[in-house]
Design brief:
This protein has one domain: 3-Layer(aba) Sandwich (Rossmann fold), CATH 3.40.50. It has eleven helices and five strands, in the order H-H-H-E-H-H-H-E-H-E-H-H-E-H-E-H. Strand 4, helix 10 and strand 5 form a beta-alpha-beta unit. The chain is globular and about 55 Å long. The mean pLDDT is 95.
Length: 287
């Protein structure tokens, strides 16, 4: 079980990440997928700073865990998290993101960025790639895990469920689907368009070990990742359904369909940063 000091450090990193996300959204000359970036903050921080067996000094070590950002429009959040872990240079990301010939595109490209396991962005394909990586690990008796971040919109795609069925068929206990379940799509709430509920039961129906967790509770996330089944012996893939809030931490963004993607003016950026700081001070005071 992680110590209180470990949890506190991960919470501090999450606050730092959200602050950098908002600051960038207020300075970038275009739209940022800020709503989903904010909903994933705790999950990504816990993954890259606690759960994943990865080393920025040896990015291709064979025993490393693999992470796939299937919801490729979350690329900036992934770049930022990896920069905070030591993979990339934060200032370079901010200076070049989204520009022609930049390594830091609006969707990730493994050719441009060693350390990124796959290119993604066409929704619904990431879990299929993760299944292939997990199957390779299983057949070669490797003890790495393959984690795949999936969004609500992707859960409407048939390929996701075909991949889930394949993962179960091969008994891929080294595969972990991590779902950012903020219950919103690009322009609507998920249940208003495609009925995904009962969501957890769907994953169970495809043979997954399902764990439901508050995706903004760092301690709960750490506990879930620390207690995953053994990747060498488990015979069922795992789905971690992280219940999150799109735009988490910013009062005028939370649950607001309009903030799937957007840019912040100076006044809104100041308000958003003040929201984050107030929440952080309250959290520290509650310890």
């Amino acid at each position: 079980m992680a110590t209180d000091q470990v949890i506190a450090k991960l919470e501090e990193l999450t606050h730092e990440m959200r602050t950098k996300l908002i600051t960038f959204c207020g300075s970038f000359g275009g739209a940022v997928h800020i709503g989903g970036d904010l909903s994933m903050a705790e999950v990504l921080i816990v993954l890259y700073n606690h759960a994943l067996n990865v080393n920025p000094a040896e990015i291709m070590m064979p025993e490393r865990d693999r992470f796939i950002m299937s919801k490729g429009h979350g690329a900036f959040a992934m770049y930022l998290t990896m920069a905070m872990r030591g993979f990339f240079d934060y200032d370079e990301i901010v200076a070049t993101y989204g520009k022609l010939d930049s390594a830091y595109g609006m969707h990730p490209c493994k050719v441009q960025l060693p350390g990124v396991e796959c290119s993604s962005g066409s929704l619904g394909q990431g879990l299929s790639m993760a299944v292939g990586m997990a199957l390779n690990g299983r057949r070669n008796k490797k003890d790495y895990r393959v984690y795949c971040m999936i969004g609500d919109g992707e859960s409407c795609e048939g390929q996701v469920w075909e991949a889930a069925n394949t993962a179960n068929s091969y008994g891929l206990g080294n595969l972990v689907a991590v779902i950012d379940r903020n219950k919103q799509l690009m322009s609507s709430r998920s249940e208003d368009v495609v009925k995904l509920e009962p969501y957890c039961d769907k994953w169970r129906g495809f043979g997954f070990n399902v764990i439901e967790v508050d995706g903004h509770d760092v301690a709960a996330l750490v506990d879930v990742f620390d207690n995953l089944p053994d990747p060498l012996t488990a015979d069922k893939p795992t789905a971690i359904v992280c219940n999150t809030i799109k735009g988490k931490g910013v009062s005028f963004m939370e649950g607001n369909i309009g903030w799937h993607a957007g840019a912040l003016g100076e006044d809104d950026m100041i308000k958003a940063l003040a929201d984050l700081d107030a929440a952080w001070e309250a959290k520290k005071g509650g310890r």
